[in-house]
Amino acid sequence: MKKVVSLVLALVMCTGACLTLTSCGEKTDFTVGICQLMEHESLDKATQGFVDALTAELEKEGKTVAIDTQVAGEPNLCSTVINTMTAKNVDLIMANATPALLAAANATTNSKIPVLGTSVTDYADTFANNIPENVSGTSDAVPFDEQAKMMVESLGLAAGDQVGVLYCSNESNSVIQYEAVKAEFETQGIVVKAYTFSDTTELQGIVTNAASESKAIYVPSDNTVADNDTVVGTICNEKNVPVYTSYGGAVCYASLAIDYYALGQETGKMAAEILLGKKTPADIEIKTLTPSVSYNEELCAQLGITIPE
Length: 309
Known about the structure:
By secondary structure, this protein is α/β, with parallel strands linked by helices. The chain folds into two domains: 28-141 and 259-289, Response regulator (Rossmann fold), CATH 3.40.50; 144-257, Rossmann fold (3-Layer(aba) Sandwich), CATH 3.40.50. Helix content is 46%, strand content 20%. The chain has twelve helices and twelve strands. It has helices at residues 2-23, 41-60, 78-87, 98-107, 123-126, 144-155, 172-186, 203-213, 223-227, 229-238, 260-275, 297-303; strands spanning 30-36, 65-71, 92-96, 115-120, 135-139, 162-168, 191-197, 216-219, 243-245, 254-257, 287-288, 292-295. The chain has a six-stranded parallel β-sheet with strand order 2-1-3-4-5-11, with helices on both faces. Helix 5 (123-126) links the parallel strand 4 (115-120) and strand 5 (135-139). Helix 2 packs parallel to helix 11, helix 3 (78-87) packs across helix 4 (98-107) and helix 6 crosses helix 7. The radius of gyration is 23 Å and the shape is elongated. The chain starts with a helix and ends in a 6-residue tail after the last helix. Mean pLDDT is 90; it is low at 1-24.
């Protein structure tokens, strides 16, 4: 009797498992893992653009995809997130931001799971000019010298004025941008000072110092600052100091930036080509987008900045 009861229970459990699988939907053709460094507007848009474009491109071919999106929260947790995806042997990994891309590349050295990055400034610098064969993607790099020129012209900066550059010292992409704008500003005699931090608990004090000492603040496409840019905006607005960001956003008076949703879409199209067997990551060149100029009319009026025609 005990054997019969055990058999019945086993059958019930099996039936329950089958029903669970059925309720989750039919088996998909592909599985894709997304590791996003942290939540903020730019990265969120890139992820959404990726998902929308990938899904649409595969649907055209009658294919389906299951997408597992996870937000690491901080750089040192990216490896943990990526390891869960490699353990599942996903068909492709999308890494949103430089720390996520590094973690994905390191974890797929042997498995050769295709990896696509997005919201990454410089792939060559990230991999010391040796990009792995299973890695490609899109870059959020913009002409940093043009950004510096735009600030000089719109703010009337002159020799001797100081521009503060605010970024997290843990983000290599921000260091690259700092060096680029520094070179351009210094050719015109403008003083450039870096205001760096490694922990967000330091941010308020660092921003207060920067706004007190600088005529304007430049923020690279720094994920940590972007995640906390309301702090930057509040302090700088109180001190009447204009903020210029490389990624756009509500706190900047102006920007020369890309559309991160469109950046994600381009990455999604690349992913579809790889999954459908049309290309490998090695066949795909790193792609950048053309940035567009924008001004925040409300902030410019508040700061007394004249918007060029």
